[in-house]
Protein: Fe2OG dioxygenase domain-containing protein
Amino acid sequence: MTDEPVRTYLNYRPPEQCYTLQELDITYGQAISDYAISSPFQLLSSTGIEALKSEILAEEVQSQCKFSCERTACCLRGVSRYCPLLKRLWSSQEVTDIVSKIAGVKLKPVMDYELGVCNIQVPDARGDDALVDDWHTDSYPFVAIVMLSDTAGLVGGETLVKRGDGSVLPFAFPSAGSCLVMQGQHVVHCGRRMVSGPGERVTMVTSYVPADPCLPDRSIMKGTWRVSHRSQLYYGWAKYRFASLAAQANARLSALENRPEAAVEEEDVQDIMAWLTHMEDFTRKTREEMLSCEAAYGQLKSAQAVSQQA
Ligand SMILES: [Fe+2]
Structure:
């Protein structure tokens, strides 16, 4: 089954509309582009939906990948090591090309650990207004969110987005397998509960960074370490950051190799210095993210120890 071509699992229909940050009155700031969010569009075929659902129900996924935090009551993370089709589908060039085309910038999935993250609605004593995934911006620049549950005739379950003036714009998933692509690091958003029907709401989320290592990448781990096996997250983080650094160095090396030595001028020297600064900042940020996550983890463990003694 998992040997079928990726297209077997897709039923792509392009989105009818895409919004820019400007149209939503959201400050551009350090965004990678003016792209904000697409209207939901069909991405997966019924075969794809069923195959992914069946993979995430596997015993190892349920026992090894389930996390919760204040923001999300139940999520599955780091699932791709147990789910071969999920890994192949979300790593595929076909799906990456679709997401990139919609976002208007060439993207790549950030790391295997962040492929096919599932947010699952579970009963919440706070009632129907409690959010499945609280208001936030993402740790990584872009995201594709796919609805895996059947939404026909049901109320709720939308992704809600905040405009710059504070008003809320709902994006309802019209069917199972529908998807939206968002610059989630710059668009404040949340997941609303399904308030009618069986109450099942499962979304699958994959995060992206620019494929061009020379574009700005302000990824962080602030929102992810609490719901991760830290060593696995750091492993993925380090691989992605080292690969980016290597690609940045190679891009600069190629640029220098294509520049005849005799033509080198003062501005080339300034350019080299600027790139060294950029790579130094990138390296420092890579380490600082790990350090700040470890510091926050240490504080959490201390607070838990104190509350257990009380
Ligand atoms: Fe998000």
